[in-house]
Design goal:
It is a single chain. The chain is an alpha/beta fold and 456 residues long. Helix content is 59%, strand content 10%. It has 21 helices and eight strands. The strands form two sheets. It has a five-stranded parallel beta sheet, sandwiched between helices. α10 links the parallel β6 and β7. α8 runs antiparallel to α9 and α12 crosses α13. It is globular and about 65 Å long. Bound molecules: adenosine-5'-triphosphate.
C-alpha cells in the first residue's frame, strides 16, 4: 500500500481508538480538530489548535503507539505543533516536507482543499442548548439541513461571547459533512474587506469574484465592523445579490439588529430581513452549568458539580468569560497540585482574579495607561490620542483602548472620548481586533503582559 494511504489509515486508526477511549466532548474538542501534517522518520507531526491542546495530546502516546504498531508494524513517535506558537514559515516547511514525501512515494495527489476558514471544533454536537439560544440553534440546524431554502439569509445577533461564531462554524461544518464538495467560506467582515482591497490593488478582481460569487455558503461574521467605504459596500451588495440569486445560503452575525447597522446601506440592510433575524441572549444558570460540564470533561482534573455550580454562579453574561474562568480555576488547581477541584480552590482562583483587578483599578487611570502604552511603543502621547492613522500609531492606540476597557471597564463612548473623540464603534472594533490577535499572535500577548506589569 502506498505510504500516503498508510498515513491516512494510521490517522483514521488514531481517531477510532480515541473515539473508543475518550468522552465525546473531549474528543470533539481535542482530537477531532487535530491534523496529521505528515510522518517523517517514524515521527508523526501533528498540528493541534493551541498549546492547551498540546498538553492534552502529550498524554495520548498510547493511541499513537497502538495505531503505529497496527498500521506500520513499528512504534511511531510524535511531535506536536500548536497553531498559536508555530510560525507560518515553520508550518510551510513541515507541510512542504510532508508534500515532498508524498510526491516521492506516491503519484496520487489530493485535490487542493478550498480555504473554508472553518474551525472543526465548533459543532452542533458541542453547542449547549438553552432558553437564550434555542430558536437560533433551531434555525441554524434548519439552514444546515436545507441551505439556501428555509431561512436565507440567516442573520444572528447578540452580545459578545454568546456563541454566534460557534453556530456559524457549526452550520459550515455540518454542510461540508453532508457534502464535502460544497463551496463554503467563513470570513470576518474585516477579512472580506481586506480580500477586496488586496484584489483591487493587485488587479485580481476576477479571482475575488470567482471565489466569493461561486460559493454555496457564505458565513460573514461581525457585520457591524464592515468598512463604510463605498467600494467595499458596493462589492458586498453585489456579492450578496449574486449569491442570493443563485440560491446560495448566506449567514451573517452582528452585535445588533440589522436596522442599527449604520455602516451599511439601507438597500443591503433591507435584504437582510428577507430571511430570518434571530438573537442569542445570555445563558441561564442551567445552560452555564451544562457548558462547564462539557468543557471540564476535557480536563484531567475532577470538577465536582458543586464547584461547577460555584463557577456558573460567578460569571453570568458571557460564555467566553465562563470558559476563561474555568481555565483560570484549572490553572490554579494544577499549580497547587489539586486533582479534585473543590469550591475553596475555585473561589481562590476567581478571587485573585477579582482582587488583582480591583487593586489595579484603584491605582489606575486612563491617562496612566495611555502614557505607558505610548512609552512602550516609543510614540508620543499626542500621537496616541491624535488623528494620525499609520500602523505604527494605530496599533498601539488599539492596544491602549483594549487595556482601558479590560482593566478599568470604562464604557465604550467614554474611551472614545479619551482617545480624541472617537466613535464607540471604533473602540469596539479595537477591542475585538486585539482580543482576536491575542489568540493568534503570541507577540501581541507578550506586549500586553509586559505593559500590564508596569501597573503592578
Ligand atoms: N451554548 C454554547 N455551548 C457551548 N459553547 C458555547 C456556547 N455558547 C458559546 N460557547 C463558546 O463560547 C466561546 C465564545 O463563543 P463565540 O466566539 O461563538 O461568541 P460570539 O457570540 O461570536 O462572540 P463575539 O461577538 O465576541 O465574536 C466559544 O468558545 C464557544 O464555543
Amino acid at each position: 500500500m502506498p505510504l500516503l494511504k498508510k498515513n491516512d489509515e494510521f490517522w483514521m486508526r488514531v481517531k477510532q481508538l480515541a473515539q473508543k477511549s475518550i468522552k465525546s466532548a473531549a474528543y470533539d474538542y481535542f482530537i477531532e480538530p487535530a491534523q496529521l501534517l505528515g510522518i517523517d522518520d517514524d515521527t508523526a507531526n501533528i498540528l493541534v489548535e493551541s498549546s492547551f491542546h498540546k498538553d492534552y495530546w502529550r498524554k495520548q502516546s498510547d493511541l499513537i503507539m497502538t495505531a503505529g504498531l497496527e498500521i506500520f508494524d513499528k512504534p511511531i513517535r510524535f511531535s506536536l505543533y500548536a497553531k498559536d506558537d508555530i510560525s507560518e514559515d515553520e508550518l510551510n516547511v513541515l507541510t512542504q516536507e510532508s508534500s515532498e514525501l508524498i510526491q516521492e512515494l506516491d503519484t496520487f495527489k489530493p485535490p487542493v482543499p478550498m480555504m473554508t476558514g472553518l474551525n472543526k471544533k465548533y459543532r452542533f454536537g458541542n453547542f449547549v442548548q438553552g432558553p437564550g439560544n434555542r430558536w437560533t440553534l433551531a434555525a441554524a440546524v434548519a439552514v444546515a439541513d436545507k441551505p439556501g431554502d428555509t431561512y436565507n439569509p440567516l442573520f444572528i445577533y447578540g452580545g459578545a461571547g454568546l456563541g454566534k461564531t460557534h453556530l456559524m462554524h457549526a452550520i459550515g461544518n455540518e454542510i461540508l459533512n453532508d457534502n464535502p464538495h460544497a463551496k463554503v467560506k467563513y470570513v470576518s467582515s474585516e477579512n472580506f474587506v481586506n480580500d477586496y482591497v488586496n484584489a483591487t490593488r493587485k488587479n485580481q478582481m476576477e479571482s475575488f469574484e470567482e471565489t466569493y460569487r461561486n460559493l454555496d455558503l457564505l458565513l460573514l461574521d461581525d457585520v457591524q465592523f464592515f468598512s463604510d467605504k463605498e467600494g467595499t459596500k458596493t462589492e458586498f451588495f453585489n456579492t450578496f445579490n449574486a449569491l442570493y440569486e443563485k440560491g446560495a445560503q448566506i449567514v451573517l452575525t452582528s452585535d445588533r439588529i440589522p436596522q442599527e447597522l449604520n455602516n451599511l446601506e439601507e438597500r443591503l440592510v433591507s435584504r437582510f430581513s428577507w430571511g430570518l433575524t434571530t438573537d442569542i441572549t445570555a445563558p441561564d444558570y442551567e445552560t452555564r452549568m451544562a457548558i462547564l460540564l462539557i468543557k471540564s470533561e476535557a480536563s484531567q482534573l475532577e470538577f465536582p458539580s458543586d464547584t461547577l455550580g460555584y463557577i456558573a454562579g460567578q460569571i453570568d453574561s458571557n460564555v467566553r468569560e465562563l470558559e476563561g474562568a474555568l481555565n483560570r480555576v484549572e490553572f490554579v488547581a494544577k499549580a497547587n497540585n489539586v486533582s479534585v477541584v473543590d469550591i475553596e480552590t475555585a473561589s481562590q482562583a476567581l478571587r485573585s482574579l477579582k482582587s488583582s483587578a480591583a487593586q489595579t483599578m484603584s491605582n489606575l487611570t486612563i491617562k496612566r495607561i495611555q502614557e505607558e502604552v505610548a512609552k512602550f511603543y516609543h510614540i508620543s502621547l499626542s500621537d496616541l490620542v491624535g488623528p494620525k492613522r499609520p500602523k505604527e500609531i494605530a496599533f498601539p492606540r488599539q492596544i491602549a483602548m483594549y487595556l482601558v476597557r479590560e482593566l478599568l471597564g470604562t464604557s465604550l463612548p467614554a474611551i472614545g472620548n479619551a482617545f480624541g473623540g472617537r466613535d464607540h464603534t471604533t473602540v469596539m472594533y479595537a477591542y475585538k481586533q486585539i482580543s482576536d490577535k491575542m489568540k493568534s499572535d503570541s507577540d501581541v500577548q507578550k506586549d500586553i503582559d509586559s505593559i500590564k506589569q508596569k501597573f503592578q
